[in-house]
Amino acid sequence: MLLEVKNLRVQFDTLMGLSSPVDGISFSLEKGETLGIVGESGCGKSMSASAILRLVPPPGRIVDGEVLLDGTDLLKASAANMRQVRGHYMSMVLQDPVASLNPVFPIGNQVAEAVTVSQRLRRRSLKEKVIELLQRVRIPSAENRIYEYPHQMSGGMRQRVAGAISFASNDLKVLIADEPTTALDVTVQAQYLDLLKELQADVGFGLIFISHDIGAVAELCDKVSVMYAGKIVETGPTRTIINHPRHPYTKALLDCLPRLNEVKRLEPIGGEPPNPFAFPPGCRFAPRCPRATELCHTQYPDFVQIDENHDAACWYANES
Amino acid sequence: MAEIAAPRGADWVEPPAGSPAVPSRRWWLRRPPIIPTLPMIMIGIIFFAAIFASVIAPFSPTKNHLFDSFTAPWGWEGGSSTYILGTDFLGRDIFSRIIHGARISLTIAGLVILIGASVGTLVGIVAGYFGGLLDSILMRIADLVLGIPLILVAIVLVTVTGASVGNIIFIVSAFVWPRYARIIRSETLSLREQDFVMLARVAGISSRRIMLRHILPNVVSTLIVLCTLQVGQVVLLESALSFLGVGIPPPKPSWGIMVADGRTNLTSGWWISLTPGLAIVVLVVSFNLVGDWLRDRLDPRLQRY
After folding, report:
1. Which end of chain B is more exposed for a tag (fewer CB within 10 A), N or C?
2. Domain extents in chain B
3. Residues A84, A188: one domain?
4. What's the average model confidence in pLDDT over B75-91?
5. Do B205 and A149 touch (CB under 8 A)?
6. Domain count, chain A
7. Are A198 and A111 members of one domain?
8. Stretch A177-185: mean pLDDT
9. What sections of A186-306 are H helices per DSSP?
10. Does some domain include residue A318?
11. Which pLDDT does position A208 carry in this prediction?
12. Given this model, what pLDDT does residue B11 score?
């Protein structure tokens, strides 16, 4: 097992009270595998990603859980070791390509800086490595572009440069892509997803793909975890999740998508996500769930195993 | 930006290939000259005078010519070409004193800003980047310093240790750094939330390096504008202290003291205060203009050609 996250919990102690945007999530990732994490805005997807890299912004804290990379618990590692892990083995692609580059340096410098964290290279060889990285993310005429500033490039190009920074290390094991395509337009999105796939095939890292775009997830991921209000509610192979969802929230999400082969009205999910400072005591989806019963409102359901790899946290997962 | 002034209809001229942009025919819409030539020349002259003061100055700045006291500048009634800018109440040559004063005023301003800006930037970036308790402590210290009456402390300190250039630099620097710290801290607060700082952390770059390589260059433009604006403030502060007798010890010429010296004779000898006053104005305005230009130059987003 490459990466195993067990019962990860992030807590924010604010003036408005305690809140757990990530409330005990668990998942695992094999080498070369792609895990999709889906959910609506504010469900804790991005916070989980930050927590895995131990970059939760204050006043947030990781209060419980384990993050095992090749069996070592990252939550117990020292700050210096964690920095090594970030530079060498784990990395993340951020949402906003415009903001993820420093406006006052040419892009070549920024890629070079990230390279030097994991590799001892100087001058000529460093420059070659930078150009190679930029070529790997398909930046045309990379040898000239290393002198350009971020504002001179388009959004898609900037996203690629940010990508090059993220895979600067030679021994990358886990890459977290946090909605890497939301800021890009559709054609560029498709290119970017292809690029991710190709790089993954080359390097063989495990990919955690965070998105609210189920289409992109379906195309890219081997398995999917659906998150709702800080908890994972359903996990399973992508195909199974899309064709035979068991959790009402997953079903509701899929009903929001237009399908090519049938004509029907799209069903929006009624209500709104629960207040993170006051989650309902029972199933967190119960207030919006069409089939919620008394039990759902009072007690949180455990995971029900439906198949070998398919689990859903619903009292009625086995019916339907 | 240049596009805003895009002329309508017949005004429109296609720019020839390779030329940057069409300057607007409406001169009031044009941007000011790219390089502030005149201010740079003025600063150059003042620096030159300061460095070669003893060669250029026709007289010693502290030598009295009591028989020639209150000589008007050359060209005015009672003026002579011996003393181009006239003499003060002790008959000291004002031109020589301004030249020597440039040396003292510039040294003090330069050192004060160097020390104040370094300390202030360091404190500001550290406080802003790490936040929390450290931030609170550092900022309360800065508030405390800003709340202490400068003049009072200066008087006490000087009575204890004696007036000297070193003392002045120390006191004024100690009062200048919190301004830098406050402004740089607030810039850092917004910068550290930026994605590029996050990406740097994801890439495993150390906090020290992030502060040095990612935050500092992004606050440099603010820093430069602040420094150039402070040149004027520091010169004035030094003159205020000198005026009260707790600054530069008397016979030495500094521009501030010279203005103060002429104060009592403003009706009979206006030139004693006016000429060093003009020198201060020229220096401050020149620094502000060059500072503005530098700020634009150092911001890659504003660089077009």
Report:
1. C
2. 61-302
3. yes
4. 75
5. no
6. 2
7. no
8. 82
9. 186-203, 214-220, 238-243, 248-255, 294-298
10. no
11. 93
12. 45
Locate the chain B residue with the closest alpha carbon to A106.
Answer: B300
Return d(Cα A278, Cα B56) in angstroms, integer.
Answer: 78
The strand pairing partners of A237, in sequence order, are A223
Amino acid letter at B98? I
Residues A109, A225, single domain; the answer is no
The reply to whether A247 and A228 lie within a common domain is yes
Domain boundary among A152, A170, A188: A170
Residue A104 in this model has a pLDDT that exceeds 60: yes
What pLDDT does A14 receive? 84
Residue A170 banded pLDDT, cuts 50, 70, 90 = confident
pLDDT above 50 for B4: no
B204 vs A: CB within 8 A: yes
Is A274 contained in some domain? yes
What is the CATH number for A269?
A: 3.40.50.300
Q: Shortest CA distance to A319 belongs to which of A221, B152, A301?
A: A301
Q: Give me the pLDDT at residue B303, please.
A: 55
B129 contacts on A by Cβ (under 8 Å) = none
Specify which residues A8 forms β-bridges with: A25
**Contact criterion met (CB < 8 Å) for A151 and B132:** no
The verdict on residue A319 lying in a domain is no
The answer on A203 and A54 residing in a single domain is yes
Q: Could you say which of 3.40.50.360, 3.30.465.10, 1.10.357.10, 1.10.3720.10 is the CATH number of the domain covering B61-302?
A: 1.10.3720.10
Query: How far is B300 from chain A, CA to nearest CA, in Å?
Result: 6
Q: Mean of the pLDDT values across residues A126-144?
A: 88
For residue A222, the distance in angstroms to the closest alpha carbon of chain B comes to 25
Q: At what angle do helices A107-118 and A123-136 cross, to 10 degrees?
A: 110
Residues on chain A touching B301 (C-beta within 8 angstroms): 103, 149, 151
Q: What is the pLDDT of residue A320?
A: 58
Same domain, A22 and A135: no
Residues from chain B that touch A96, judged by Cβ atoms under 8 A, are 195
Whether B200 contacts chain A with CB within 8 A: yes
What mean pLDDT comes out for the span B261-288?
84
**Lowest-pLDDT choice from A7-11, A311-315, B1-5:** B1-5
- Whether residue B132 lies within 8 A of chain A, CB to CB, comes out as yes
Higher pLDDT, A209 or B86: A209
Same-domain check for residues A236 and A282: yes
> Which residues form the domain of A288?
3-89+171-312
Q: ∠B64-B66-B69 over CA atoms, to 5°?
A: 100
Chain A residues in contact with B211 by the CB 8 A cut-off are: none
**A81 and A129 belong to one structural domain:** no
- Given A170, A189, A206, the domain boundary residue is A170
Residue A282 has pLDDT above 50, yes or no: yes
The answer, yes or no, to whether residue B97 has pLDDT greater than 80, is: yes
Does B212 touch chain A if contact means CB atoms closer than 8 Å? Answer: no
Chain B: nearest CA to A113, how far in angstroms?
8
Could you say which of A94, A103, A149 has the minimum Cβ distance to residue B198? A94
Least confidently predicted of A209-213, B1-5, B42-46, B251-255: B1-5
